[in-house]
Design a protein that fits this description.
It is built from 28 helices and 19 strands. The protein is of the alpha/beta class. The longest helix has 30 residues, at 512-541.
Length: 651
């Protein structure tokens, strides 16, 4: 990624100048640790990485440069909550910032894109999936991008705790839009993950800034509980302590609803938050929580990422966290105002079963991987695919399909192209004759050709872009730009659907069996890493040394002395978890399972599929067969996956 030229911004801004800008735009008198160093790298045209703890002020590292640079700062984040809160705050300060996400209306989308095109925006927040939008990419390559900021940058690393294949493509997008420098931000990068981030985004080692992990205002408390006593204990702790803004983290959506209802029935101000709620409901809960000084949100892990609320006094973990990285992010959302906050983990070892089941459920069977490989290499040299179709066809979860395709790219078999929408729909807001009358000559004939090729069904018109482009002898990109223009001018209402991903086969495997085995091995390695992260949580809970110091060591940020206020430091003895309570498996279950297997031999062709079903783990094949509502589905959810698999295999 090339650095900007000398006319962009003076790289000689002195500390007092930056402090002046900081006070003027954000009202702060000083930088938090690491912020100024990162900002100076960016203003000097050097790409940088910021590894700051949650609450450490990562967002300022791109917000302030956005005001000082001539082009737009593009911020890529997977978190709609982060976008909404930060953009609302910036707009409130008079800063030209906007976001593109799924919650925007058609009018709002048009307004944002118009300001983006015209250079009236200093900062734009988008999700990684936005790059699947052809119209957005067409606009992006014609826009000066001074800074390409990637939040949650640990997602690019398969060694990290939240690997997202789409993130690996962001470096190419930064190059394609000629971004003048890149900023990678994360709170949870271990040393191998940071090395991946640096390599992918071409960041020099001296431009990777890591600050201390330790925050002395957070009191880390760990209490072993049984599943039967957990609700009463949580309620007792909340009622004993002074009221304050509180997050209770849970694993499952239904648990969020149940716990929020129990707390509400006890007279507490509690609401549930999870991905299963409608967008407007989630937004309402988020707004309510930000405004309240004693509200309790019972939430799955997505809540709190990027929430601009400094006075969260309590973070409870009702369920075990999936990893030390997740735990560190979640507790870091408390006490950002520097005042004391309590982070209380209710450690129930029975949570290991459902958490492990999530991991095992993502691992495809060897037969599924073999089918996938045969399919991919039977296609033409240039082909396009729908990940959802591949997932359904081969009974592999969508995220795993994307990961497998990424592995094939990294190993040189495939080259990914630009994703596109398979179909465009438009609804004329004016008579077509009136629309055409606004244009002249070749442009009018071009639009007339588009309208002629559209299939009208009552209100909406459907357009096959590839077929139309070929038929009228025009580039597909021109059709996209034309439709986008008509949408912006409010002549049509535009929709796009059916994302398909382009690929080119660079080479074929000499031995498909060997390739299949390598891919299977990769999925098993991922499974082993994720199970290992769960075990790290259990080991950390039962540590014989300072728990906070152990966390700091995990993130390569050693603490010189014990913290003095974690459970280990205060009790001077390790927390002891009970053994797992594994219920016996009734023989009646196996009789019913055998009958079901005979009825659906095509579905339960592999022991792992039956094990998933009994443990309550869905898959594309089970969903297609509509077996999720069967009485046996999830009947052994409290039994460890490997134990169920062993029994299924032996039968």
């Amino acid at each position: 990624v090339r650095a900007w030229s000398s006319d962009v911004c003076s790289s000689d801004l002195m500390s007092q100048d930056l402090l002046k800008e900081l006070r003027q735009h954000f009202g702060f008198d000083r930088f938090q640790p690491g912020q100024q160093e990162v900002i100076e790298h960016l203003l000097a045209g050097r790409s940088a990485a910021a590894v700051f703890p949650t609450g450490g002020g990562k967002s300022l590292c791109y917000q302030l440069p956005a005001l000082l640079l001539p082009g737009v700062t593009l911020v890529v984040s997977p978190l709609i909550a982060l976008m909404k809160d930060q953009i609302d705050a910036l707009v409130g300060r008079g800063i030209a910032a906007a976001r593109l996400d799924s919650t925007l209306s058609a009018d709002q989308y048009r307004d944002v894109m118009s300001r983006f095109r015209d250079g009236r925006l200093k900062m734009l927040d988008v999700a990684p999936e936005r790059f699947n939008n052809e119209r957005f990419r067409e606009t992006l390559i014609r826009t000066r991008v001074s800074l390409f900021a990637v939040d949650e940058a640990h997602c690019i690393s398969e060694w990290g705790h939240n690997f997202r294949p789409d993130y690996l493509k962001l470096a190419n997008f930064a190059i394609n839009c000629q971004a003048e420098c890149v900023l990678a931000l994360t709170a949870t990068a271990t040393r191998p993950v940071l090395e991946d981030i640096r390599r992918v985004f071409q960041i020099e080692s001296e431009c990777a800034v890591r600050t201390g992990f330790y925050r002395d205002n957070l009191k880390v408390v760990t209490t072993p509980v049984s599943a039967s006593d957990r609700d009463a204990y949580l309620l007792d702790q909340i009622q004993r302590r002074d009221p304050g803004s509180t997050i209770v983290y849970v694993t499952l959506q239904r648990t969020a609803e149940e716990v929020a209802n129990r707390l509400s029935c006890a007279g507490l101000e509690a609401k549930a938050y999870h991905a299963g709620l409608q967008d407007d409901v989630r937004s309402a809960v988020q707004d309510w929580f930000i405004a309240s000084d004693r509200g309790i949100v019972v939430a799955t892990i997505a809540f709190g990422m990027g929430i601009d609320k400094a006075n969260i006094r309590y973070v409870y973990h009702y369920n075990l966290p999936k990893s030390l990285e997740n735990y560190s992010q979640e507790i870091g959302r408390s006490g950002r105002d520097g005042e004391p906050a309590i982070c209380h983990l209710l450690a129930c070892v029975d949570d290991m079963n459902p958490l492990e089941n999530f991991v095992y459920g993502d691992t495809p069977t060897p037969d599924a991987v073999q089918s996938f490989v045969a399919d991919i290499f039977s296609r033409d040299v240039d082909f396009d695919v729908s990940y959802y179709e591949l997932a359904s066809l081969h009974d592999i979860r969508n995220l795993v399909i994307r990961t497998l395709m990424t592995y094939l790219e990294l190993q040189g078999y495939l080259e990914g192209g630009t994703p596109f929408y398979a179909q465009y729909q438009f609804k004329p807001l004016l008579p077509s004759a009136d629309i055409l009358a606004k244009f002249e000559g070749e442009r009018r004939e071009f639009l007339r050709d588009i309208f002629r090729h559209a299939r009208k069904k009552q209100v909406w018109c459907f357009l096959d872009l590839d077929g139309t482009a070929k038929s009228i002898g025009q580039p597909r990109e021109r059709l996209v730009r034309a439709l986008d223009y008509l949408g912006e001018q409010q002549m049509v209402e535009l929709k796009a659907a059916g994302v398909r991903n382009r690929y080119r086969r660079l080479k074929s495997p000499e031995d498909t069996t060997a390739l299949t085995e390598r891919l299977v091995h990769s999925t098993l390695q991922r499974e082993e890493r994720e199970i290992g992260r769960l075990q790290q949580v259990v080991d950390w809970i039962q540590s014989a040394t300072c728990q906070v110091a152990d966390l700091c060591d995990h993130f390569d940020s050693p603490l010189e002395n014990p913290c003095g206020h974690c459970t280990l430091c205060e009790q001077q003895e390790p927390v002891k978890l009970a053994d797992r309570d594994v219920p016996p498996i009734a023989e009646k279950v196996w009789d019913e399972t055998a009958n079901l297997q005979r009825e659906h031999r095509d579905v339960f062709s592999h022991p792992i599929v039956m094990t998933r079903f009994l443990c309550g783990i869905s898959s594309p094949r089970l969903s297609r067969a509509k077996l999720g509502s069967h009485a046996l589905f999830g009947s052994l959810g409290a039994v460890p996956f490997q134990q169920v698999l062993m029994r299924v295999t032996s039968d």
